Amino acid sequence: NPSTGKFTVSFIEGDGIGPEISQSVKQIFDAAKVPIDWEPCDVSPLFINGLTTIPEPAVQSINKNLVALKGPLATPIGKGHRSLNLTLRKTFGLFANVRPAKSIEGFKTIYDNVDLVIIRENTEGEYSGIEHVVTPGVVQSIKLITRDASERVIRYAYEYARAIGRPRVIVVHKSTIQRLADGLFVDVAKELSQEYPDIQLETELIDNTVLNVVSNPSSYSNAVSVCPNLYGDILSDLNSGLSAGSLGLTPSANIGHEVSIFEAVHGSAPDIAGQNKANPTALLLSSVMMLNHMGLNNHADKIEKAVLSTIASGPEGRTGDLAGKATTSSFTDAVIGRL
Ligand code: NAD
């Protein structure tokens, strides 16, 4: 907004613990004087002709602002509804899911030095939803890989590696078995590598990746991994487990050509909703990714440092999921005190 010098960002607070952790982000952003005005978005799904759709005002808001922060959305139980998260991905063409997984200083897990980044193709592969019964007892499920979708996500991986100063891009695949599908994904990566001479391309079979990452995660600290949809889904959860050991800590970004939506990896945590117990860190670290994406790096660094040093300060500074004693609001106040 040229008259106020502020950016407008769409904010989907989400369900369950969503409003509590969203409140924490808003308070911390206010205290840090981040030049952002939030535009609240209601994405309560509409079911029209058997299709899940998002209310038009929310679509307009996100298409106008191009950047959104999103709390967790509960998926309605019942058949026939596409999940709202999938609907958002399709509506805004969010082709890459970026998930960093980094050890948190002062919170002990199996490994100390995990710093992994995985980029998952978000639109096709095993999630194309093309399945049919050939004959009773025989089903076919189609994994769709296209040159276009592979190219846009792999190109994003090269660009992301360059932007965060990592010299290696690793394509994770199983082209020994999925010769054509994963073969195309690997071929596209090799073709694109000509355009990124400063980045070293490596290819790795997914079974090797799994073994390597659990035995020596720090060997990936200077790399960005990129892979087809299902592998990315599984590997990114593995990485979260290795780095943090709590769902309350892992952020993510969903990137499209125009729109990007930033969100915590965890769900709406109905078991602790409304009890001032939720850990807002994952949404806060997602908002830090968002600030970096927007070029507001100083604000991003300031908030990230305050969050991490609060967690490192000991059990008084941590929420219950990290075996601490803090509430959502006392944690928020402590972060504000450390900005
Ligand atoms: P969940 O991530 O909501 O909860 C799993 C466990 O982790 C619970 O014990 C919960 O209390 C804990 N937890 C999660 N986030 C936490 C936080 N910030 N602080 C402290 N503890 C936290 O997973 P679930 O119970 O399987 O799913 C609940 C709902 O969320 C479902 O409707 C599901 O579809 C939805 N969901 C949404 C998203 C999303 O919007 N991206 C992702 C996953 C699940």
UniProtKB/TrEMBL annotation:
Pfam families attached to this UniProt entry: Iso_dh
Xref: SMART domains: Iso_dh (SM01329)
Catalytically driven reaction(s): D-threo-isocitrate + NAD(+) = 2-oxoglutarate + CO2 + NADH
GO MF, one example: magnesium ion binding
Cofactor: Mg(2+); Mn(2+)
Source organism superkingdom: Eukaryota
Gene Ontology cellular-component terms listed: isocitrate dehydrogenase complex (NAD+); mitochondrion
Ranges annotated as spanning the membrane: none
All residue ranges annotated as the Isopropylmalate dehydrogenase-like domain in the record: 8-335
Keywords: Magnesium, Metal-binding, NAD, Oxidoreductase, Transit peptide
EC number of the protein: 1.1.1.41
The keyword Lipoprotein appears for this protein: no
Metal-binding listed as a keyword: yes
Family: Belongs to the isocitrate and isopropylmalate dehydrogenases family.
PANTHER family reported in the protein's UniProt record: DECARBOXYLATING DEHYDROGENASES-ISOCITRATE, ISOPROPYLMALATE, TARTRATE (PTHR11835), ISOCITRATE DEHYDROGENASE [NAD] SUBUNIT ALPHA, MITOCHONDRIAL (PTHR11835:SF34)
Name assigned to this protein: Isocitrate dehydrogenase [NAD] subunit 2, mitochondrial
Gene: NDAI0C01410
